[in-house]
Amino acid sequence: MQRTLAAGVLRSATQCSAYTVLPCKGHTFDRHVALDLFRRQYHPTAACERGVPKKKSRKQQIITNNKRDNVLEKYGFASPPDDSLTDRYKKARIRDGPQRTVRMTFDDMKWPQDADLDEKFAAKTLKSRLGRFQMSQDVRRRCGNFGIGDGEFVEWASKFAQSVMDGNNERLVPKDLVPLLIRSRLEGLDNLILSQFFAFLERDAPHVVKDMKYLREITDLRFPHEWTLGARTMKRRIIMHVGPTNSGKTYHALERLKNCKSGVYCSPLRLLAHEVYMRMMAAGVSCGLLTGEDRRYPDYSLQDVKPVGYTSTGTPITQVTSCTIEMLPVKLFDVAVIDEIQMISDKQRGWAWTSALLSLRARELHLCGEPSAVPLVKRICEMMDEEVEVREYSRLGELEVSSRSLEGSWKNIRAGDCVVVFSRAEIYGIKNTIEKKTGMRCAVIYGSLPPESRVKQAALFNDPNSDYDVLVASDAVGMGINLSINRVVFTTLEKFDGESVRPISVSQTRQIGGRAGRFNSGVSVGTVTTMQPSDIRALQSSMGTMPPSLDAAGIKPTT
């Protein structure tokens, strides 16, 4: 049961020193959240939390109780807040301390799936954020740093918002905001609104921002291809291998890497870099490993593993280096492979892919990833007068999305399943539950698992003669790790992204789900499903939707 609460009531219910809720007009809050808000405002045991003297006269207490009951009745809550909520907040207060701030908004609680983000939603969100922009104290503070007073801000912010709603700003068009909302949600939209506000002032009110032109010039980051000269001094052949999961695009790039004189493989994960290192060594290619926590040289004691030459000091020269993309060596290569190129738009790590694309000195550069990255990569390469050859691949096996979930029962798990969990803390708990309910043993894989342990766990799951029939894994399985998965089971379609819990993207859903039915694994048709019935519709929608084309690349200014 949910109710829409007026902003005035919510605003009056947030006077609590231990917790601060940031309300917004017209937002829908869960019943229990609303009851908690009212309890903190009207419940007598919460008075001390607000810094209000706890002792009240009988008349004052009757007035307070009447206020509380009237407000609850007005918004459809028949009974006053439960005392158990008071106990729960007392425990949370002791555990977390009085300094904690909880920011709860409708946007964080009810953000739709990527497949449901459309022009209508973008228009509604834009209107909402423009209204919030005009009221934001943080925006006023940031504008004040540029010499814009409160009076000028109120005047010109209102004119700017009206100009945007009239369709006079070509950067803030609802249909063009959909990729931005998918990529960075409200943070990206808020930053774009502020940037366009400054551009509006430069055009229509230059007297308000006298120094803005100078500040823009010294902080201009529009031409990152001019920051490095190494790659610009050579003519590179750039080949993009694009296609869905399990289409063989990375396989073809690695085959070319095996036959070069000097090469590098850039991985998004330590686990994947280690896997390529082991694969190259098994094929007789001298390969080194370079990650943030591990550095290995080729084992020349193995049969057929020979150096491609020696330096003047007698040091063996390695043919291939497998590294995480942030650890890319600065040297000249014959062939380079950059995997998961679509991560160039990632908010936290995208700069590493952009830097590698712009500065990697390789005569032949192979980029592997989703088709959604093709237009963006082409635009970046055009700035460097380079052409991109695109090779498209089709999936090598069938994949179907189940119309039924597992109905929330772990007993429905079967051999060959990969249970995907987005919380590392829950992986071992779910593993123990499955083993207890089904009698089948489970292997586990997650991002920070040591490479040797990961190789062992993958081998146990892939071996049909072992006792390990089920895999419990994090979203790390979506990044190209070779596993014989029959069915992918999502325990949830939401993930904590470092700031809030949000639905996973269409790209992530398709990438992880596509690991089912891997080619040459003995499974003719892979299946994707969910644990809970409530997630099936969202899964079907995401698996049936193509990710939108990327429209931005991450950058990291050089020092």
Topology:
Blueprint (H helix, E strand, L loop, with lengths): L1 E3 L2 H6 L15 E3 H12 L15 H17 L8 H14 L9 H4 L9 H17 L1 H8 L5 H16 L8 H31 L7 H7 L18 E6 L6 H10 L4 E5 L2 H13 L4 E4 L4 E2 L12 E2 L5 E2 L2 E5 L8 E6 L11 H10 L2 E8 L4 H10 L4 E5 L5 E4 L15 E4 L3 H15 L2 E5 L5 H12 L5 E6 L13 E4 L3 E3 L4 E3 L2 H8 L11 E6 L5 H8 L16
Helix pairs in contact: 2-3, 6-8, 6-9
Detailed description of the structure:
The chain has helices at 7-12, 31-42, 58-74, 83-96, 106-109, 119-135, 137-144, 150-165, 174-204, 212-218, 249-258, 270-282, 350-359, 374-383, 424-438, 451-462, 506-513, 536-543, and strands spanning 2-4, 28-30, 237-242, 263-267, 287-290, 295-296, 309-310, 316-317, 320-324, 333-338, 362-369, 388-392, 398-401, 417-420, 441-445, 468-473, 487-490, 494-496, 501-503, 525-530. It is of the alpha/beta class and 559 residues long. Strands 6-5-9-4-10-11-3-12 form an eight-stranded mixed β-sheet, with helices on both faces. Strands 13-20-17-14-16-15 form a six-stranded parallel β-sheet, sandwiched between helices. The chain has a two-stranded antiparallel ribbon with strand order 1-2. Helix 2 (31-42) runs antiparallel to helix 3. The longest helix is centred in the middle third of the chain and has 31 residues, at 174-204. The chain is globular and about 75 Å long. It starts with a strand and ends in a 16-residue tail after the last helix. Residues 1-54 and 71-109 have low confidence and may be disordered.
